[in-house]
Amino acid sequence: MTKETTCKYQQSYNYTLHPDFELSVFQVTQPCDAMIRLCLWHGDPINCSRIFYPSLTDEGMCCSFNKVRNEFIFKNPKDTSDLNSTLHYPSVDWTLENDFPEGAPLDSIPWRPWGAGRHLGLSVVLDANIEEYYCSSEASYGFKLLLQNPVETPKLAAFGELISPGRESLIVIKPIINKSSPNIASSEPELRQCLFNKERTLRFYRHYTQRNCILECEANFTLSFCQCVMYFMPKDRYTRICGKKDTDCADKAKCKLDRHTNEQEP
Question: Which keywords are on file for this protein (predicted)?
């Protein structure tokens, strides 16, 4: 039986997901300490298992670096599994708008680089473990890399960059910093075309960002359309997670929402 036939067969299989579905995804995924074999931060060796920990994404499990604890991302962190991970460094209530709280320890997450340059960044050696590939989300093997806000949930399918195994890849970050004057807060949001964090309250996320807002909107619409949400979406402990039998409905919900969003854009 070919891989394509097996994947197609499993796609049509109807079953009810186990309540601990998130944990089961973690248990069948390549562990972070097996995928990331060597780490350098600021040019110094560091234990990879102490700085990377698993996170759920729209393409399964990923290993996150410099992402704050769930308690600083979600309003009800107990509704989100910590996937049996241990976070070795303290996090602080950081936001892009407010920066670090006063008196935050220097070793608190999110970490700050000492300066620019390859020697002051993060370097890793990765093991793709291609012998274990089965029904991959891409027609190839390797890795996906995503740069994101530390208080956001990763969305690899839309924004991930492909990284080939067996090669050295250099990722250069050239940030564009747009700062707003406090004086524009008195202007209407429609006029300034942006929102301050306190001007929009989300149901699941503690802090408003555009991506958090979009993902929460996708979750709400999928729930109303399919009576379930995808496993990677924000949810409470009583919400049903979509199974394989709900895939077509969830895909239709995403298409409808994307079409509506595109129609609303000027």
Answer: Ion channel, Ion transport, Membrane, Sodium, Sodium channel, Sodium transport, Transmembrane, Transmembrane helix, Transport
Cβ neighbors of 229 (< 8 A, separation 6 or more) are 219, 222, 223, 235, 239, 240, 241, 242
| Residues in CB range of 132: below 8 A, 6 or more apart | 30
- Residue-wise pLDDT tens for the chain (266 aa)? 333 433 443 444 444 444 566 667 777 788 898 999 999 999 999 999 999 988 888 888 899 999 998 899 999 887 776 666 777 888 899 988 888 988 888 888 999 888 888 889 999 999 988 777 666 666 678 899 999 999 998 888 888 888 988 899 999 888 888 778 878 888 888 888 888 888 889 999 999 998 999 999 999 999 999 999 998 999 988 899 998 899 999 999 999 988 887 766 55
In this structure, the strands spanning 122-126 and 60-65 are unpaired
Contact indicator for 87, 26 with CB cutoff of 8 Å: no
Q: How far apart are CA 54 and CA 235, in angstroms?
A: 18
Amino acid at 256: K
Provide the b/e sequence for 81-90 (b: ≥16 CB within 10 Å).
Answer: bbbebeeeee
Residue 218 buriedness (CB in 10 A; 0-12 / 13-18 / 19+): buried
Interatomic CA distance for residues 266 and 264, integer angstroms: 6
Those residues with Cβ within 8 angstroms of residue 255's Cβ, 6 or more apart along the chain or in another chain: none
90 CB-side CA count, 13 A: 8
